[in-house]
Amino acid sequence: MRNIRRFALVAALAAVVAPVTRAAEVDALLPAETEAVMYVNVKQMLDSDLMKKYALPQLKEAMKAGDATAMLEKLGLDPLKDIASVTAGLWGTDSENMKVVGVLRGTFNGDKLMKAAQEFAPASGDKMSIVEEGDFKMIKFIGEGDKPAFASVADDKTIVIASDKKVLATSLKANKDKAKAGLSKDLTALVLKQDEKASMYMCGMTGGKFENLPGNINGIPGIDGDQLVEQLGKMTNAAMTLRVGKDVTVEITTGMKDADAADGFGANVGKLLDLAKTFLPLAAGSAPQAKPLIDDLTKTLKHSVKKSDVTISLKLSADAISKMTAGNDE
Known about the structure:
By secondary structure, the protein is α+β, with helices and mostly antiparallel strands. The protein folds into two domains: about 30-175, no CATH class; about 205-330, no CATH class. Helix content is about 40%, strand content about 25%. It has 13 helices and twelve strands. A twelve-stranded antiparallel sheet has the order 4-5-6-7-3-2-1-8-9-10-12-11, sandwiched between helices. α12 runs antiparallel to α13.
């Protein structure tokens, strides 16, 4: 009995001191074609110490500029209060042919938003219009490069934006039918490894995307270009995690084909980071205001290899950010 109590006490203490993370959820509104997922924990970022001190005041001022405030009031939307998170799914053959779905979660007045959009549309020329796809009413708007985008209110907790109205209709139907997530098995497993409590993460499958790189990578001291290209071809996935709190931490993890591939790639990553640490202080000479951050990078930039994963990490302290900000204000 004494051993059982002792075990229970140790387990409880371990739970208390262990890092608090929570596996990310797979958003059911992302289409099955999705190859990469980006998640932004808007509420966490806005509530973080650094954002409150250095970014939130500027964001509030920017929202007051021009007609932004009046438009947001008519839409019944306060981005700094109403949006809790944004999840995006991306896929396509290249950067010019990418398709995107963005899912905004929070608290929204759907009726007010759609009504305001209908009022704005006639006066916007061809920049905004109301269109339909099947049973769904959508807002079509023209963005940069004259590329259209489509948005609709799925419910009072969900707004969906997409690059194609058929794609948007698929996500809206998934919400209406309460469908289960339909991402590929490998991407689902990768998303579930991410931390939902992080400020932001991006992850995606990379298998085959680096196998046919043109030529090799030459001119980097100590690096065999042909070998590095071959190693990149063995990369199966990649993920980046950003945490903003009192400090900023970044982790970039590449999943390799196997442990041997990870060891080889990790060795070259180590050489590249050593080069970066050599040249970073030189950059501080031409940009003295950035020296506090460069010093942090030089001290904290590191890599590790665990099984088939290669991870690069760094940390920017609140003190360094404060010094750089003060230097820029002078």
